[in-house]
């Protein structure tokens, strides 16, 4: 989205005046009032629309819901009831009050947060426009996760690819990766994920911990 040109929505009506109108105070007053109306209802409206809807980096919840329809990706996830154990609570259907943890007692939808929605939609957008080449994916990942940490993908040359996270993804990111098949990959290629929070033992520029630490995969 960074290649989108800058828009200028300002309308300067006073430029319509000719030199013959320099002394036409009534006309100039009328144009100033019209200019005030345009500044609110034209420029501010489109600035807000660009910020809150068009730009995925800054879109609010409404704007993200518009993008969700365009990209055909749901922003709610269906969660099944946890029937593996009695749920914490009162009553005959919640028998684990004194013994265990919380559990979901019935099936239902869980909505994504604004930032989760933004991440899903950006990944979905790239999924649709990408050809699945590793250099292209890594360039996108570098931009997408720039404020969080380093993420990169490698081709394992056996119809699989691995995403490496050099930080521990938080619960919101893990939820996205568990519920959405959203990380870009070529068709027919199996996807793997691995967390590697420190450089691994070995040779070469990608194994910087040779003299300092333990083995890594």
3D structure, described in words:
The chain is of the alpha+beta class and 217 residues long. 35% of the residues lie in helices and 12% in strands. The chain has a 3-stranded mixed beta sheet. Strands 1-2 form a two-stranded antiparallel sheet. A hairpin with a 4-residue loop joins strand 3 and strand 4 (160-165). Helix 2 packs parallel to helix 3 (114-129).
Rg from Cα: 27 Å
| Largest sheet report | 3 strands, mixed
State the end-to-end CA separation. Answer: 35 Å
Structural class per helix/strand content? alpha+beta
Total E-strand runs = 5
Order of helices and strands: HHEEHHEEHE
Tell me what portion of residues adopts beta-strand conformation.
5-15%
Query: Mean pLDDT, as a whole number?
Result: 79
Low-confidence stretches: none
Tell me roughly what share of residues is in helical segments: 25-40%
Strand order of the largest sheet: 3-4-5
Q: What is the overall number of helices?
A: 5
Question: Which word captures the global form?
Answer: elongated
Oligomer: single chain
């Amino acid at each position: 989205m960074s290649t989108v040109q800058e828009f200028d929505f300002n309308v300067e009506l006073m430029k319509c005046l000719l030199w013959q109108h320099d002394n036409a105070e009534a006309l100039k007053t009328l144009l100033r009032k019209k200019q005030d109306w345009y500044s609110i209802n034209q420029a501010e409206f489109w600035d807000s629309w660009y910020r809150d809807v068009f730009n995925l980096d800054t879109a609010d919840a409404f704007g993200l819901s518009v993008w969700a329809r365009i990209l055909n990706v749901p922003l709610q996830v269906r969660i099944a009831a946890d029937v593996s154990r009695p749920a914490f609570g009162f009553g005959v259907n919640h028998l684990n009050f004194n013994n265990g943890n919380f559990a979901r007692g019935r099936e239902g939808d869980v909505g994504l947060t604004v930032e989760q929605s933004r991440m899903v939609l950006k990944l979905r957008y790239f999924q649709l426009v990408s050809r699945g080449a590793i250099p292209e994916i890594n360039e996108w990942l570098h931009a997408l996760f720039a404020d969080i940490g380093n993420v990169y993908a490698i081709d394992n040359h056996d119809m699989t690819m691995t995403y490496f996270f050099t930080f521990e993804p938080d619960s919101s990111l893990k939820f996205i990766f568990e519920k959405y098949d959203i990380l870009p990959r070529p068709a027919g290629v199996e996807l793997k994920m691995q967390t590697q929070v420190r450089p691994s033992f070995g040779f070469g520029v990608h194994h910087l911990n040779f003299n300092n630490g333990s083995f890594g995969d």
